[in-house]
Amino acid sequence: MRVMTNRKRCIRRTGCAALRRVGVCVSMMLCLVVTSQVTHAQRLDYAEQGTPPDPGLELLQEEPHDIIFFTEEAGGGWARTLPLDFPGRRPPSNPDGDLRFQVLGVEGKEMMAKWKAIAKIDLWEVKLEKEARERIAAGDFVGAYPFLSVLIRDFPNQKGLRELRSGFLWQDAISRAKRGEIAATLAMLEELRRYAPEYQPRSVVRALSGTADRLMQQLVDAGKLDLAQQMLARLEKEYQNDRLDAVTKWNKNFFDMASRKRDEAIAARDADDFRLARKLVREAIYLEPDLPGAKALMRQIHEIYPMVNVGVLQSATVLEPTRIDNWAARRAGRLMYRTLFEIQGAGPEGGEYDFIFGDTEMSPDRMHFDLLIEPEKVKPPLDKIRGFYLADVMAKRAIPGSPDYFAPWAAAVHSIELVGPSQVGFNLRRPHVLPISLLQISVDGSWFGGQPGSPTGDYRPDKPTDPDGKAGDSEVVRYVLRSEPKTPTQPREIVETRLLSGSEGVGRLLQGEVDVLDQLFPADAIRLSKSKSVKVVKYPLPTVHMLVPCSDHPYLAERTFRRALLYGINRQDILSGELLEGLQSEGCRVLSGPFPAGIELNDPLGYAYDQNIDPRPYEPPLAKLLLAMNFNQMKSFAARSKKEVAEMTPIRLAFPADNLSRVACEAIRSQWELLDLEVELVELPIGRTFPDREENIADIVYVSAAVWEPVIDARRVLGPEGMAQSSDQLVGLGLRRLEEAKNWREVRDRLLDLHAISHHELPVLPLWQMVDSYAYRRELVGMGSDIVSLYQNASNWRLGQ
């Protein structure tokens, strides 16, 4: 009895009179309502008088509900209910009997009231619409938008919604136009035109045309002609039936601009300024592709003075076609210099090479080979070479103390014989699987009586275009033809333009500002391959990316510390997320060693890579443990030596001045900092990819290496005079055993051993393998296929139109 008395007092105190008077439910349900009201005191779900408070924007945070208002005769008040189940959400016009409903907060307990006791019902969607209309009328479009969005999503068939949404777009467009938000105004007007073409058509079209005109003018004034062109083409296509005045006006403007540039190009051609003429006529065609006479003028300029524009991410300051750690030096060096043996690709047994002076012959036992000079088959100045000079060059590479001494060659060759003026023979100490790989030597003008370092390729650098006279620091470097062209269509100039990013290069290629991109981000290559005007091609040989210690930092000298650094890099995440941007690119993978893994399964390119050695995973806890172990080891060693333990100075991580290397190193730094390491990034000067050890500006450097022939490149990467300058005894033993291999089976076995040694000793920290791509506009023909260097067939290039 005491419990019932308290409950009755609670009912009277909370005010459920309206519900009780109309006989809503039995007493048990009343008690549930009261209990719900006490529990949810922060918001009333019913009351016996007044009206519900206006929640404003908080209405959107409430559960959808309807509100029933009771008549004064029934006692007044109101109640929030779960959405009422009316056919089509329309209350009956002449209701009779009872209305069943559930009060919000007491779901599952059905209540009912006489229809004659109900004054009105506010439906949820009607309330949303009312809020939206009031806010639109007040100019609060930001506040109206969420109410309108919910209506569009949940009540698409609501009567008056189309008119409400159209009015919102129109009024918001007017408001944005007054604030000078031209692009946003155009977006609103276009959305309105697409959604409700019947809404004030003349006014909307007139406003759309005027807004487009203003935005076009802004883009042209800002020099963003490409964006203006794209917008004009879209407007013309989408509103061809509306005949926008702005489209007519700007089509004429662009035609006039293109005509002026065409006329200026003709004047430049007549003044023999073919560089300027080509630039102007390209711009004219871009502005107006069907401009009369423009394409014919372009063809004429191509015929008179062929020139190819190449977009590059790295400019070359050194020109060395055999450099494995410098992409730009390798690329531009091929224009300037020929190499005694030039790699053309990869075969089932190592690289495929061409002897630039003739042909080669190898004995069946691989103990002897001859160089056969064929001057009649080569063009000047290469036809001047003779056997005695080649013999002298080869001998100097085998003499200790000579500036040209090369230890692997000295270890391989036993004697050199001059068979005649056109034949040089080489007797080897032991069978060698690929002795010509030891003879990748740059050939300069001194071989033919010229100055040391003078070019032997088809091109030479033009004078620098920047005030300081540093060609590599200039945005544009020109390579001009040194002699008479081999063919009428051979480019007289190859112009390299350094780009700030891969995305900039893609934009310039699509616009026709450059004809070729020498290196693409893998993600850009995948996206660009969908373009009809551009061809994307993969280089057949991948590059190996690694971190190479380059200072006497006491901690980096410790294998345990280097292992900790590797465990502290999430290589798969950086490769997949940062560099590939979540896209799939065949052949791009994390590595466990310093050699390429090949692109496909059982790829002969991966003959040096042990697929059974998995890359170390990302394990920060283990990395921290190894760091602590390494410090304790160094502390104990210092105590035994009665010395101070070496100070842990910041790790200076260097990288070349290109976007891909920068992105990768920023990610590596952030992950090393999670290990409580202090890391400083050092961007190398343009054109440099490896810091001078004497300068001591870095401790470890990010390297992208062309390890295309591991049988010879292993020493160039790991050897005492290579990039790593490793003095590790196991690494040295592995290199010596490799160079003593007598057949390809021994080569493979010993390279796999060297892979295992490198995985354990970590003279370099392997990161990942990248399959690089180049792209060119389809009007450029003669690129060739499976080229390992961009300029491999540059003499055969021809621009059409």
UniProtKB/TrEMBL annotation:
Domain Solute-binding protein family: 508-690
Region (Disordered): 450-473
Entry annotated with the keyword Transmembrane helix: no
Signal peptide: 1-41
UniProt-listed Pfam families: SBP_bac_5 (PF00496)
Keyword flag Chaperone: no
PANTHER family with a match to the protein in the record: ABC TRANSPORTER SUBSTRATE-BINDING PROTEIN, PERIPLASMIC BINDING COMPONENT OF ABC TRANSPORTER
This protein's name: Bacterial extracellular solute-binding protein, family 5 Middle
Lineage of origin: Bacteria, Pseudomonadati, Planctomycetota, Planctomycetia, Pirellulales
